Amino acid sequence: MRTVSYDPLWKTLIDHHMNKMELKEAAGLSKGTITKMGKNESVTVDVLTRICNALDCDVYDVLEIKKHGEEA
After folding, report:
1. Are 3 and 68 in contact (CB under 8 A)?
2. Which pLDDT tens digit goes with each residue over 2-36?
3. What percent of the chain is modeled with pLDDT above 90?
4. d(CA 21, CA 18)
5. Residue 58 β-bridge partners
């Protein structure tokens, strides 16, 4: 079983000197979407695209797919 992790996004935000609320505004995200990502829940490809556009980054800078039980 594989699961999604947004750990790369939180590191990318640090590199861009941004916090989650600034990302929310820059990418036009809802508070609920940020909450889902904080819990490593799935979001739409549209959301991922908006984040990549806002941060001028690639999808691998936003998420990774981990095998069940795999450490970072």
Report:
1. yes
2. 999 999 999 999 999 999 999 999 999 999 999 99
3. 89
4. 8
5. none
The domains of the chain, with CATH numbers, are 2-67 (1.10.260.40)
With contact defined as beta carbons under 8 Å apart, do 8 and 66 qualify? no
Question: How many CB atoms are closer than 10 A to CB 50?
Answer: 18
The secondary structure of residue 56, as a DSSP letter, is: T
How many degrees, rounded to 5, is the angle at CA 11 between CA 38 and CA 54?
80
Cα 16 to Cα 30: distance, rounded to the nearest angstrom: 20
- Give me the residues paired with residue 65 across strands: 4
| Single-letter code of the amino acid located at 52 | C
